[in-house]
Structures are given as C-alpha cells and as structure tokens.
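Bit of a strange request maybe. I'm writing a small parser for structure token strings and I need a real example to test against, not something I typed by hand. Could someone generate the tokens for this chain?
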Amino acid sequence: MKLDVTINGEMRTFNIAPKDTLLAVLRREGYFGVKHGCDDGTCGVCVVLLDGEAVLSCVMLAAQVAGKSLTTIEGLGTREALHPLQEAFVEIGAVQCGFCTPAQILAAQALLDEKGYGHTGSTSLPISEGEVCGGVGGVLCRCTGYAKPVQAVLMAAERMRAAAKGDA
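Reply from user aminoacidic:
Good idea to test on real output. This should exercise your parser:
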C-alpha cells in the first residue's frame, strides 16, 4: 500500500505493508536519527513529532500517519543552523553516547511547543524543572542522569522565550 506523509516539511510517498511500524519505515527510508530500542514503547528512543506531538514510532503503525506531518531530529535544525535545543544540548554537554539525544530533544520540543515557546509575541511563563523532567522523562538515558539534558532544555526555553519577546 502507499503511504503519503510529510516528513520534515517534504511530502514523501512510501510503499508499506499494513503491519509496518513507523519506526521501521523511517529507518528503511534513511531517517537514522530515529533510534531503534525496545520495540514495545518503554525506552522512548524512537520518539518523533506527529503533528507536533511526541509519539513512539516503534508502537505506531506507519499507516496511522497517512496525510499527517512528521518531524524527526533531521528536520529540527541543520548543521549550519542548529535549533536552540540542539545548541543548548551541545553547550551544556548534555550529549553523552548520543543514542537517546534525538528523542530527548524532540520530546522537549513538543513540551516547549505545548507551552507556547518560540512563537512570536509569546507571553509564556518560565518553564519549571519539574515540567522539563516530565517532558523528557519518558526517554530512557543510561549516560547522563538527566541533569544536563534538563539544564539544556531550561536554557533553550529561556533563549526561545527571550527571542519571541524580541529580547535576544
């Protein structure tokens, strides 16, 4: 069957089987920033954004995303122009082995979008450490202990908030 989906702003069409998971299709098509971990939704390293919402691609059938918009880590920023979350993760040193990093960043992006960060004219209140922990806590990390990723998200959130207000 054919699957039409927008990935990172580009309309794509794939041939899929009804049982194909979104994770399997994405990796088969070269989106290697989406990691393969547990296959049952417990580790969270396969997070992608589906119409802006963080979803686990290993437990979602590819057919479920027909006509929708996906964002993978490859679509968040570029090597030349990193997204503020990517910049903060690098600056803080929140990247250890890097396996969970794409999913942590995308989960954080979904949280910040939900809270209105980065939108011009946004009047978002500062985000709390607890909110960030809740936002990225579903992505298991065995290297960092979460302190640095949480610091990075808080830093990026403040920068995005300031930029939206015109203070940056």
